[in-house]
Design brief:
about 325 residues; Cytochrome Bc1 Complex, Chain D, domain 2; 3 strands; globular
Length: about 325
């Protein structure tokens, strides 16, 4: 047994080993795991100005008082329409070099409101300028400090045509001087306005990405079963689970190699397609497709998923889909 209170060398060595182990487990491994995540289809990258604003947001310590995470609890519904996903932060993080990666700005304290969707809640440029210059001008009870050093006074004759100024009546400046927002202020506001939670409901994939929905009569009277299933999958599932069935890590689960998809008993898979699914915090909510698709169409999708991307499960029976749909409808009535 180590006599650490007397053996200082071993004590220092043990502390160093613990430090390295914790650093690898808490910082290094999660950072490299995040490299595997993909952006949500339809999301846009930050512009150069917005990325400069992100740097200012960090340097000014804004993350100390503002979170950017919507949790899956009732009280967080005011901050966003859905819980945050790992892929929501794909574009806000960036690798600075081989050793360092900028962290996602989740935050841990809400002295001020959560900013996940502030770009939608407050889209006004003028509001953000006033709030940054003096928060009490727009939120009387605000405890946020003034960022007046991001503004300067200028004679009206020397103000650039594209400069954004604050009203003299509010800032109470004397003479002909006006208050002009600096480049840092405009960049920071550009970043804040870019914080808009991506809505899956509003996203419409490009029309050339999704083929036309096969007509119902094609399923019963003609066309290859495989091509019909593939077309229905593209129309209803590929935007999230991807054409290759690999999904989007951190947002939508893969179907290739999925135990649910390949299960000998396909009831769970059929129920998920019919009713939707919202029981996994790490993934987005899957909408129910039962109201929009017939039993024949659901069978075509299910068979396609169970026989593609290396999956090799048996076809499902139409009778099972009909029975499960009737059972679900009966439970809703009760």
């Amino acid at each position: 047994m180590l006599n650490l209170h007397k053996d200082h060398k071993n004590l220092v060595l043990l502390a160093f080993v613990v430090f390295v182990t914790l650093s690898i487990g808490v910082a290094i491994m999660p950072a490299y795991q995040m490299e595997e995540y993909q952006p949500i289809p339809g999301m846009k990258d930050l512009t150069v100005q917005e990325r400069r604003g992100l740097s200012i947001f960090v340097s000014e310590g804004c993350v100390a008082c503002h979170t950017q995470q919507v949790r899956n609890i009732e009280m967080d519904k005011m901050w966003g329409d859905r819980p945050s996903l790992a892929s929501d932060y794909y574009y806000s993080k960036q690798r600075m070099d081989i050793w360092r990666q900028s962290p996602s700005l989740l935050g841990s304290e809400r002295t001020g409101p959560d900013l996940t969707d502030i770009g939608n809640r407050q889209p006004s440029q003028d509001w953000h300028l006033l709030h940054l210059y003096n928060p009490r001008l727009v939120v009387e009870a605000s405890v946020m400090p003034q960022y007046s050093w991001m503004f300067h006074t200028s004679d009206t004759s020397y103000v650039d045509s594209d400069a954004i100024t604050l009203p003299q009546s509010i800032t109470k400046m004397k003479g002909s001087d006006v208050v002009v927002a600096s480049r840092d202020a405009l960049d920071l506001i550009a970043y804040l306005k870019s914080l808009q939670q991506f809505s899956f409901e509003d996203y419409e994939p490009p029309m050339d990405f999704i083929p036309a929905l096969p007509k119902e009569e094609e399923i019963t009277t003609g066309g290859s079963k495989k091509s019909i299933g593939a077309g229905l999958y593209q129309s209803n599932c590929a935007a999230c689970h991807q054409t290759n069935g690999r999904g989007v890590k951190g947002a939508f689960p893969p179907l290739a190699g999925s135990l649910i998809v390949n299960n000998k008993n396909p009831e769970m898979l059929i129920k998920i397609i019919l009713m939707g699914y919202d029981a996994r915090e790490e993934y987005g909510v899957m909408p129910a497709l039962g109201e929009n698709l017939t039993d024949e169409q659901i069978k075509a999708i299910t068979d396609h998923e169970r026989s593609s991307w290396g999956n090799n499960a048996a076809e499902v029976s139409l009778e099972m889909i009909t029975r499960l749909r009737d059972s679900i409808n009966s439970s809703k009535i009760q």
